[in-house]
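Field reference: sequence -> structure
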Amino acid sequence: MRHERGEVSAESVIIVPVVFFVLLLGVQATTLFHAANIATAAAAQGASAAAASGASELDGERVASISVAELGGSLSSPPKVDLRSDWVAVTVRISVPQIIPGFPRVIERNVIERKERFVGELDR
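Structure field:
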């Protein structure tokens, strides 16, 4: 069986861009999932800090910001803490590096946690 000259080059022109696209798609998906995990972890830690007995909104914001920095993320806006009488909600927005156009540039995660209540010995 004879091969035509240049057949391998023509196949390479088609295959190589597809392989690179699939590779970059995997990198983008991994980056997106990593940013989502960072946002979820930071929001959970911020909510835990803000839900502690006697804590304030600033405690939750500070802990969430520190968590994002420690985990290697980049905040797109400061964490938002909504402190109510029975619960606290923390929203964290993380910037995602854009490798392939069309993927989200920002990931937002919300965590809601009940506030801790101190119950004295006589009230139990």
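Note: The domain at 7-123 is CATH 3.30.1300 (Pantoate--beta-alanine Ligase; Chain: A,domain 2).
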